[in-house]
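Build the 3D complex.
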Amino acid sequence: MLPPAEAESGSGVYNAKLGMWVFLASEVMFFTALIGSYIILRFGNPEQWAQPGQVLNVPVTAVNTFLLICSSVTMVKAFAAAQHGDQRWLRIWLLATTFIGASFVGVQAYEYLQLAHHGFLPSGYREGHELAEAAAQGGAFKGGPALPASVALYGATFFTMTGFHGFHVTMGVICMSFVTWRAFRGAYSAADHRGVEVIGLYWHFVDLVWIILFTIVYLI
Amino acid sequence: MTQAKSHRPNYIGIFVMLALLTLVELGVAFLTVFSKPVLILLLIGLAVWKALLVALYFMHLRFETNRVRILVIAPLPLAVIMVMAVITEYVW
Amino acid sequence: MATTAATFDQATQHAHVDDRSFLRRYIFSTDHKIIGIQFLLMSLLFLTLGGTLAMVMRWQLGFPGQAMPGGGVLPETMAPGGILLPEFYLALVTMHGTFMVFFAIMPLLVGVFANFLIPLKIGAPDMAFPRINMASFWIAVPAGILMLAGFFVEGGHAGAGWTSYAPLSAMPEMSGVSWGQQLWCLSLVILGLGSILGSMNYIATIINMRAPGMTWFRLPLSIWALFITSILVLLAIPILSGAAIMLLFDQTIGTHFFLPAEGGQPLLWQHLFWFFGHPEVYILILPAMGFVSDIIANGSRKPIFGYHSMVFAIIGIGFLGWIVWGHHMFQSGMNPTLGMTFMISTMFIAVPSAIKTFNWMGTMWRGNLQFHVPMLHAIAFVAMFVIGGLSGVFMAATPVDIYIHDTYFIVAHIHYVLFGGSLFALFGAITFWYPKMFGRMMSPFWGKVHFALTFVFYNLTFWPMHEIGLKGHMRRIYDPTQYEFLQPLQPLNRFITIAAFLLFAVQIIFALNFVLSWFFGAKAGRNPWNDTGLEWSTPSPAPHGNFERTPTVYHAPYEFSHPQVTEDYLPQDRPLEGRPASAPAGR
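Done.
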């Protein structure tokens, strides 16, 4: 009988990590559909977009962006703690990540409510509200140039892109809570902390998408 | 697994870079008078820089095998092709 | 690197008796084989439904405005007095396409066979993520229910075609359909999630869980095809999901992505849909090509001719499939220069398919041909796919497409590749792997009868569609006789209708063969087809955990009629004495 052949090396990473990277590739395509459509629609109808900061609240969102970046740092610190088998700091960093992530969603929800209140919806201007009135009179909102006559595409793309990002963050927070709970039950060790690494990848991805979104939605 | 993480990045250092780049972005967007195309190029460049930092150091792509990197990069040309092709509906 | 990864994922599971409850074993199973069979039963039901819808459509086309026999059961909103309403006809057209593409062919090719074959043919005990695999199926079920629900809602089901073009699909006030279209969007988004999770599973499994010795170039072509297909699913379906969500928003929350009134772009829908849609059609054919390769090698008792070029052709089709989508849009009003680039890229994509066709023929040449039922279907696949592919070359030429777009010439093409291609391959594949699934053989006699009758009636149904299409018969029209120039074609329309009825009726033979063989078919041994794949080393049906011991792979697939072996096949996991285990790649 011949000896068995060498095991096939495959990708060189364990299944869960490979699976998460593969899944993230599909997520890149999903956001491509949304962000790509935004780029295309804006290219074709640039007059429907207000200047940065006219409609959207850039200062608050900039702080929110900073928060999300912080949560990526706490996440990677949690992973480093897991690598060393440091249970205490693993739990602390994971809790921090969960909490900051939830805050991000909260701030975004607040932002949405503010926008709706001022009169900016996925369908564009909201009849009878501030923004609509200001635009109708050819005026501005927070100083600067006049508002566009219609912001239908602006509203549609803004809410869809940031909304689905927010949905992904929410899913991330739910999974992060589960991983945190598992950490408190001592499920992760220096030898095996796959769960922490895998949720970390998802979390960093969500942060990465936001880095792109913040720039192209709020600053351009 | 430990082999891939033998070089440990300076996470706090990367964090400071990310915070700084965000501030620079805000500055570029509001405080200067670049022409629109240059502005867009600068801002996207800064955003890509930040994204790369997260991907390479937080997601540890810097230390992964080529196979994993290829997997990750694969969707990007498709995204570019789709957007560029449809934009030709407006130009060309 | 290999040992570190394997530390967590080593195949420690082996074949064993599963002693859990009935619910855990057969309903909420994590066993890839059971999940594959679950997809099989679900998809065959939807295939039957899709066929039924087609029969109702064909009645209307063959005998426009006449009351359909049995049509009295349909409600007034669909067919008062058994006479189909135009709106209902459009819903039939839409749902025939939708059910067939998304709930029949795709799950049959991928949900069934990727699930069933991959671990068995690469020597793994199960998928990389068995519980996510289970989730994939149980996500598809509510998606199917939502899609069915559309028939029962106010306004009727979606009626904008399976391609759901905006602005018609985005404007309930124009189409009269609101809930139906929304259910369509929602169902596909949900199904899409299941598909994406599935493809992630298949990719990770194939990359990471191959048995020792199963190098990339020793993988059977069915697995290569399923691997590339899974990559296409992974990257294309999310585009559809995004587009469907935007369409749903246009219908419900007042956005204007695709509505021109406020600057939206109907063409954006078409670009997004077909950017998904073209890889989708390769998703619908590549696995079929893979099964056909396995079956033709088996039926010819010869290795596949040009195995490496087959692999590169599959990869080539996978790559090129991303840059041809505009050929569905030549008549849309898109940028003509962009259209020209699509014409060129589309011409190119014929090449890898042609390579495969010649290789199949080369495999059969001077083979010791066994015309068993799977082989008959596989040979039919090659012939029918060539016809479908050739009509595709006509369409690739934009000036020709200007004339034949949205005619029955296109419908003929679609059905030659999807029915003549994919479905024949599926009949062959189901027959071929039936013993491994159920431990029994399907009746060869009735299999041959079914094949012969299906082949005849299928060609009688779809070949004339080339004819009427060239004479100007448009797609998706309710009553051809209202156009004077189409009236002379009506006899041919009736002919097609009758052939279609016979084609559908004949499928009862397959259905009965499938169901009755399950209980009364001849018991199958481990390797009833004398095949070389790893799955034939397991008992029939394959047990939970698959292999008694992790197999070791010693050679390429398709080692039939090997000069140093007495039998005319050499299984991949049986060594040829005296040869080293790590032989050079490919041999």
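DSSP finds six helices and two strands in chain A.
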